[in-house]
Amino acid sequence: MRPLAIITGASEGIGRDLADLYASDGHDVLLVARRDAALRALAAELEQRHGITATVVAADLASRAGCDAVVAACAGHESRVVALVNNAGLGAVGWFHEIAWEREQVQLDVNVTALTYLTFRVLPWLRRNGRGHIMQMASVAGFQPGPLSAVYYASKAFVVSFSEALHNESIGSGVTVTAVCPRPTITGFQRVSGVVPGARAGGAPPMSSRAVAELAYRGTRAGKRIVYTGFRNRVASMLGRYMPRSWSAAVVRRIQRSRLG
User: What is the value of pTM for the model shown?
Assistant: First the structure.
């Protein structure tokens, strides 16, 4: 029986590319996102190209019911699960006190609660199987405060810290947990976050989603604690860790202000 990989946020961008990488490497895939039609089109494409089985779960991970639907779809296949890819996430750009609370709540529900809950449910399967990995999609944003995107940056700081802790807890279990920390990437994320069309990201040019997915896949399969997508991104992460946080906050504020238009 083929190994099974669970991939959230699979309908586009990095998640879609990761689904292709897992499928091309002989994994059946469980594809999770809100857009049923996009998932079904991807599932058909992956099955035709790679000869695997792709299962679709159209679910809103901002809800407990959506998360439980992912777990339920694995019933009877727990022993085949070798990978959980917590890629789903969203952001919002603006002044914290002006963004609707419902938007901030959804960020926390998806970026933090769903990621933590799915990890809580799947990690015991991996440990019982004595193999596998969890890929947590964090961000270079997780190493610094983020004015004008405060909740998003804070949520990614949680993902980094949580993942590093579980990586340590999993030593000797046959399971690894990896935080992937991309720099800005060409995906639909900016559109959904409310970034002005055409706005430039600070620092290096954005990477393609495929390039990020390939680095994330290789690094996670190698059992790395953190994957930085490129040398410049590693430098930016180090600056975020060790430069005065008031300085990094000022830099981020200037960048984010330009993205509001």
Answer: 0.87
